[in-house]
Amino acid sequence: MSTEGSDPGPAGVVTAPATGDLTRAPQPAAVVPHLSVAERAARGRAARREVPRSSHADFSPAPHRPDPVELLESQAPSRVPELVPIRYGRMLVSPFTFYRGAALIMAADLASSPTSGLHAQLCGDAHLSNFGVFASPDRRLVFDLNDFDETLPGPWEWDVKRLAVSMEVAGRDNGYSDKERRSILLETVAGYRNAMREFAGKGALDVWYARLEVDELVTQLRAQFKKAQLKRTEKTLAKARTKDSMTAFSKLTRMVDGEPQIVADPPLIERVEELAGDMDPAVVLASLHELLRRYRQSLQSDRRILLEEYRLVDLARKVVGVGSVGTRAWIALMIGRDESDPLFLQFKEAQSSVLEEFTAKSGYANHGERVVAGQHLMQASSDIFLGWLRVEAGLDGVSRDFYGRQLKDWKGSFETEGALPQGTAIYGRTCGWTLARAHARSGDRIAIASYLGGGDAFDRAIADFSAAYADQNERDYDALKRAVANGQVEARTGL
Q1: Tell me, what DSSP letter sits at residue 82?
Q2: d(Cα 284, Cα 106) in Å, to the nearest integer?
Q3: Beta strands 7-8 and 131-135: pairing type?
Q4: Is the pTM of this model over 0.85?
Q5: Could you tell me the maximum CA-CA distance found in the chain, to the nearest angstrom?
Q6: Under the phi-then-psi rule, with left for phi > 0, alpha for psi from -120 to 50, and beta for the rest, what region is 18?
Q7: Alpha carbon 486 to its chain's center
């Protein structure tokens, strides 16, 4: 049984999503069939016969493949016009930064690729820079996926391919040899395949509680690290532990007339009162408080009480990321007991997922809620202030969806530039494990594991695909460079 636009349940079936309207009564959930282990494994074997694992190796551009620059330009009308050139400037830094911003292009290419027919909740943009470390609610440093702007149910293979290709593209940027890149790809996909087979043998709660705690992971991998790699990793983790609201407060604010204020740095950081123009400051402030109350209603009840400890002091629009540049992202400065107790929240605009054109539409009325629901489903530990809201009429009078979370909470990421091949392979294997755990929480882990099998046929196929798609990514990168050179699009670099 299925429900149109709904999300896949744990056994590859579907459950009715929330409506996104806090005033509506809950809708009846779909009936969830419970197949036996043998029946679920048979699903995977049947899918393998219908779509051989070797079929994933092929990539060739479709005969009427959309122009990549036109696809990027199709996203521009919904974004802040003056920020779009910054997006293109960041994408032009390298083929890897281009790849980070090209989720829509790859989604269009994956739409015609072979799939097993087994679905899970997807990250939608599972490249290597969208994994990282952050603090869990119990204050442990964990490693997980950390970006869900494009999350949507879909073929699990799409996330695996997005991750694997990012490893190939980053390897080329770092000057790795063909042999080194191939080894990294095989490690990454084997990490996914072996983890999925591991989770297929576990109970549902064991899968749900599984997570990668960074201290334990470093201890396990210490023998595999060279001294320089270990030092670099420990430095990254130490730096991550300093990234919190207090650090952001010291870097992003100054005292003005006895009150902390976000420091403007146009066009990257612009305070709301500067963007509001001639609007009455009192009206703007009242509107912000109303929006904050709506956001608070989306939080778990105990977190609502915690948030009430803080008062709103300032708000600014901040440019973030690569692919996200141009969508609206706001940072809110909150103060608790005093200035030594700050809280920075980030509210990111949630537009339609790039996957929606190629799969089913989201079952959520609010795209902020879509992101939050997907994040809760895929992450082992999520930010305590993860919530959503709809702005009915923003500064430009347009209704938009947003999701909120803490701006900084022990966040750290893998630095691709200058990384050694061995360290990248270990990182790829870790990302593969993490992605498999995320998919195992929503997809039919037993059927997917059965499809993957115990050999490396799937690993080799994805490695072949990744090399071919990295070639396409370079061609698309060159197309953007030409478009900038001939004046078709404007790019601002160095920002």
Answers
A1: G
A2: 40
A3: unpaired
A4: yes
A5: 71
A6: beta
A7: 33
